[in-house]
Design a protein that fits this description.
With 589 residues, the chain is α/β, with parallel strands linked by helices. The chain has 21 helices and 15 strands. Strand 1, helix 1 and strand 2 form a beta-alpha-beta unit. About 4% of the residues have low confidence.
Length: 589
Amino acid sequence: MNEQKGTILITGASGRIGYPLAKRLAESFTVVGFDRRAPSHPPPSAECLYVDVTSDESLRRGLQAIRELHGNRIVSVIHLAAYYDFSGAPSPLYDEITVRGTERLLRMLQDFEVEQFIFSSTDLVFAPSAPGQRINEDSPLVPKWPYPESKVKTEQVIHAERGKIPAVILRIARVYNDLCDSIPLAQQIQRINEHDITAYLFPGEVSAGRQAFVHNDDVLDSIMLAVARRKELPPEVTLLIGEPESPSYGELQQAFGRLIHGVAWKTYALPKIAAKVGAWAQEKLPPNRSPFIKPWMIDLATDNFELDITRAHTILSWEPKHSLRNTLPKMIPALKADPLAWYRENEIKPPLWLRKLAPAGDPTKEIEPHELMRLGEQVRNTITAPAPKPVSEPPMNMGEPKADGNGSMNMSMSVPEEHNDEVHAKELQLEQIRVQQRRLDQAYQREVAAQKEEDARARELMESDLPGHIQMMKMEQENRQLALELPRMLLQREAQIYQELQSAQVVASAKTPETGKMMGQMVAMARWSQIPLLVLGLWLIVSPFSLGYHSVALIWSDIISGVLVTALAVIAFRTKRVWAVRANTFVGL
């Protein structure tokens, strides 16, 4: 693309898709972003305007601003703004924002030369398919809850109101990235990570519930291709954007169980009526945090969505470069490296026990207005700097048995210093970054608060001084970009360090004899010492009868002790188990 003067309008420009999309498109186009309120994180690569698509006056003013600043021609309108929530309840906002907001936008765009209108819909508009059967763009539309219902209505509005504007409808699967950033996936990870009771239950057969996903980068690629090929596309086209492989709920459970806890995760099928009762009870009880699973979700849990993306490949030459299965191992190291930062990134309230593990900070130290810039420099240095060198502990080597001052043999069972240096360095580096994450969180909260204070002034300038409005939005964009991106950069670095730490621990353990293994070797060397214990055990068993004990308690004490000593001596002799030796010591005491 080499159209430096072309203008692209993105609604919802500060969202998960809009923010990085604006950055990529700004390399070739002038990008204007519309947001319902002054965004906490306006893309620094876009001219962000304070526009509410539910208001005729606000939308008209926003489009007039584009005409005044950039003329009457718009290369592409990428419409991402929509209402969404997981309550499952009907809301007038679905109609006001998603449906009528789109209708209002299309009608006002008729006065512009618009080369393309792209709308982000969802694959949830379709009826679920049978396992093994794939959904394509012509499959029946049977939306089951208000969010996809609003998308179906909006698609109908686009068909009726687009006029001569070419339209592309992208029915997008559930979006994720390397840090997760997918509400359903993040909630599933959280339940397994915390061993929540609901992590072991599923309302139906766990091999069902296949859901389609797509990586955020692949979604961006599809939109970029749609913009690049806008003159080659049909006047109105609908495309499915998702991965052809849809893992079942059970497969995801197994993968997360292994990645988080290193075990095969057991998930039990639960009747749907019982699951609904449990979800209802969770909603009604006053929990520490609101439960994610709602009763209405139970009926949809086993719905099957497997996509046929042939049309997107044929028309756009698009196909996903990522897969959820291959990305799952990238999500979990970030969670393991810094759970608090991962929870915050995925907008999950951490449990109390996890919050107590946060590195201690200085609550009296305030965040200065421009401290984020300094923190940004520190973060970049942290990411590029080598691991710090830990203070070495005294060398403790595993060597040959040596005689002590009394002439007895003494074996040191400690680790060579050189095998632990890298492990200590990685642990220290992780701890330092966790402290930085807490500091960045404070800076983030300050930036959000500052933005709220500026909302009223930004609204006023939008009405009276358009250049001043744009200038005001740009003044703090760099700060807010840092507040959004620095924690993600750090979390990705933490995940990398955590993986390096695991590798270092494997190397160290391979070079270091385990204490239990060494004890087993010592027991094996002294296994013949168990024979006297066998004799002792047998003597304890027969002594009450040989010596004519008169106390019943003493008789049973010797018999039980003798049986235990004999059994443990046999186990230690035959299996070299260290615990048997320790247990015999306890019996003797």
